[in-house]
Structures are given as C-alpha cells and as structure tokens.
C-alpha cells in the first residue's frame, strides 16, 4: 500500500472525529463584532494540538482595532517540526463568525448533523475548513512521522472585520516571513475542486455633505445636507454606475457579476442621531446640516487605486459645479490592493495535482469577489506562495442555515493531505 493510500484510509477512519471537531468549534460562538470567546476557542484547539505533538503559541494582538480587556484578540499558532530540514506548509483559518441574523430554522450554534450536513454559523465560513485542515495534518503525521520541514496551523481572529487583530498582526510580527513559512493554504469555502488565487481590491470611504441647520417649518432659511447627498446619488446613478459596469477584468472572479468594478452604498445617515429604542417621542423639526455615506468600492487588478479615488472625487466636483453652497469631505476608511498568485506558484501546482488525483478532473482557478486574509500574507508578510482552498459553498457564507458537507470536508482533507505528502514527504 502506498503512502497516499494509507493517508486516504487514515482520513476516512477519522470521519467521526472530523464531525465532532467541527461541531465542537461551532458550539463556541465566536461572534465578531464584538469578538466573543476568542480565548475559549484557542484554548480548545491548544489542548488538541498539544495532544497531537504540536508546539503551540498563544498570541494576543494588543492595540489592534477591537482589542480590549473585555474582548482580547487572541490567536493560536501550532507547529510540528519534522525530522529533517525542509519547507513549512501553513494552514491558516479564521475563527471569528458574523452575526446570526434572521431566518434560521436550525440552532446557529448547535452544530446539528442532518443528511450529511453540519449546520451552524461559521460551518462553511470557515470552521469546516479549519477542521478539515487539522484532520488532514494529523492523518499525515500518523502515516508519515518522518517528514521534512514543518507543518503549521493557525487559528486567527477578526478576518470578518479586516483581519488586523489576526493575520495582519502575525504578519507584522514575522510569522509569515518567507524564511519561516514557504506555503500557505487558507481553507476558505470555494468548493473542493477550486483553487482561489486571490481577490479583488477594496476601497472604503466615508463621504459627507454639509448644510446649515434651521427650523423645519422654514427650510429655506437652512441648507439641507441630505438633499446635497441625494444629488450625489443621482450623479452616481447617471454616470458612475454605468462606467463601472464597463470595467471588466481578466481575473477569473466568481460569480460572473463580480468580473466588473462594483460600488456598494453601505450606509447613509443624515440629520439627527436616532434615539434609543426606548424613546417614544417625536424628533425635533430641524433642517439636517450633515449627511454621511459609507461607500464600498471593489476594484480590479487592471485598475489603479488613485484612479478609483479620483472617480469618486469627480462625482462630488461635478455636483459642486451645479449646486450653490455645496460642501463635502471624503475620508478613506480602508484600502486593500488586488492580489493574485501566479498559477505556476509551487502551492498552486501542488494543490492542482492533488485535486486531479482525488477527483479525476482538473482544478478550476477562481478569484474571490471580496478580500480575505491572503492580503496580509502577501502585502505584509511578503509571501506570494499563498492560496485559498477549502470545503463549502461560497454562496452560503453569512446566510441563514449555513452548513458544510461532511463529504466535502473529507475530500478537501484528502487534497490537503496529498499536498503535504508531495511537499514534505521527501527523502
């Protein structure tokens, strides 16, 4: 029996363990925001990794956005050194999950197993991927205890809110230095036959229009900031959105609609601050003197960030040329440049071969419409040999009744295990 055959059998025999591990992870509600139970899930994983012979390190991302004594940003890194020098394969998964929302028919933190699917918030995105990578690594170590290099697994915070308390912090501290780690797989849910090479760019900004407060019965004595913002929205509909639809990319972004530039109006608020839910009175009659809008601009590898910003400024300048007393400000909140790993990168070639051997079909290459922690591995860690590959259906992420398929997790674990054999099981 070959080493690969033994690995496949070992993973199949760990089916019940994979299910139980996924359920345990789902039953720890790591909601972000605010960042609940990060230490609890790290401690749970720490016990497991130490039992499997890994050396572990708990790292708190002090001073990062959201970090506080009440909600500390904890991360866990587990590393198992081989018997010979060689390269390190690193699996990185975030443990935070988004808000539950409405519409669930299952317990979002119950980890219920029904018809081969495990339900729960974060099952698909991405605790199922974390569990699959752990089982893959443990199975590899069981059948190949004498290996080259190192196997490393991290469980990190805050990916859903930018990753600054997780992978970004670790990258700044050198944990993703190419001298320390050579291959990175992030088990995000892109389907078991797909390799995600990277993601589009993002530019978030808060834009604000200004007016003058006055009595609501005499609005002509004031200047309505909301009407100014309405003119901005009208200009966006007229000129910006049609222009964005014409910008197409050669990146294999999924779904098809994301192969163009996009802009989302994330939120708008103008006028008086909304009162507490317990307040039952009426608002006072005032002309709003400010209106704020958050915009989420997703851009392509072919676009330049300065041009993206200039397009927004041009919208406001166009409106300003038509409206007396129009004043505005644009404040950048967040920026991430597009990234895409080359198809001939070592980790891409390795996982592609493992997919073909496992499923009898060639891997499909995709790019994510939204960003994930590859941005920090790439930009801060300076490590280009990074992909996303994991179980689950991307469309289920953040949805009610989110689930991950058990067979998909097992299959992905086999691809991950085959990749470990190719990269680390060397004489």
From TrEMBL:
The keyword Metal-binding applies. It comes from Durusdinium trenchii. Its cofactor is Co(2+); Zn(2+). It catalyses: N-succinyl-(2S,6S)-2,6-diaminopimelate + H2O = (2S,6S)-2,6-diaminopimelate + succinate. Belongs to the peptidase M20A family. The keyword Zinc applies. Pathway: Amino-acid biosynthesis; L-lysine biosynthesis via DAP pathway; LL-2,6-diaminopimelate from (S)-tetrahydrodipicolinate (succinylase route): step 3/3. Pfam families: M20_dimer, Peptidase_M20. InterPro entries: ArgE/DapE, ArgE/DapE_CS, Bact_exopeptidase_dim_dom, Peptidase_M20, Peptidase_M20_dimer, Peptidase_M20A. This is Probable succinyl-diaminopimelate desuccinylase. Residues 198-320 form the Peptidase M20 dimerisation domain. Its EC number is 3.5.1.18. Keywords: Cobalt, Hydrolase, Metal-binding, Zinc. It comes from the Eukaryota.
